[in-house]
Each structure stands twice: as structure tokens, then as C-alpha cells.
What we know:
Shape: elongated
Helix content: over 70%
Oligomer: single chain
Distance between the termini: 42 Å
Number of strands: 0
Structural class: mainly alpha
Low-confidence stretches: 1-6
Radius of gyration: 21 Å
Number of domains: 1
Mean pLDDT: 81
Strand content: under 5%
Amino acid sequence: xxxxxxxxxxxxxxxxxxxxxxxxxxxxxxxxxxxxxxxxxxxxxxxxxxxxxxxxxxxxxxxxxxxxxxxxxxxxxxxxxxxxxxxxxxxxxxxxxxxxxxxxxxxxxxxxxxxxxxxxxxxxxxxxxxxxxxxxxxxxxxxxxxxx
Length: 148
């Protein structure tokens, strides 16, 4: 943010800009969480209505199968392509997984929006810092998947 030349304090216009950006980001996060909750809720309703998860290893009539870990077998979709395929088939666990993916994506989206805000403000130091943070977030996702 540019500081007022006379006293080093931000101007009233800059204060309003910062407040509106913070308000936008808070709304983005709030609506993202609500969207995630709605998607998970739709998945749970689909699960109850259909009576099956969409995956053979997890059955509603066997509570142990819902919480048991099956090495080498996915009980639910764990990647974006698997979620996409599951959504195309209308699998309840895929719908729930989509809601969780939306929730996981929110902090990354927040950092991306912050970069855009800093570019508009021409605050290049913060653009670089935030771009570095975003690259580390994305790298952690890719390395986490590659490390399996």
C-alpha cells in the first residue's frame, strides 16, 4: 500500500480499499465453505437415498467396511480424475469427495486472489512473496501425490 507522503499513514481511500479487499476475501471463504457444505450434504443425501456408496469395498450394511482401511484399494475417490469419473456415474462418495476438494481448494484460491490484489495495487514485493507461497502450496500437492 502506498503511504501518505506527509505523515507515512495510509490515506482514507487506501483504508477503504484494504477493507473492501479483506471483505471480498472473507466473503469468498465464507461462500466457499457454504458451497462445500452443500455439496457434501447432497452427497450424504444421495448416499442415504441410494443405499450404496458407489464403491464395492464400502457398504452401508457393514459399518466396518465404512471405516476399515483397505491397503491398495480405494474405498472412495482419492484423485481429481477418480472424482470426475465417480461424478459422471453419480456415486455418492464422489459427490462427498468433491465437497471436500472444494474445501481443500479454498486456501489456495485465497492465495491466488491475494496475488491479483497485490498486482492491482502494484505491490511487487508482496506479489513475489505470495506467488512463492502459492508455488509452495501447489508443489506440496504434487509432491504429496507423487510420494504415494
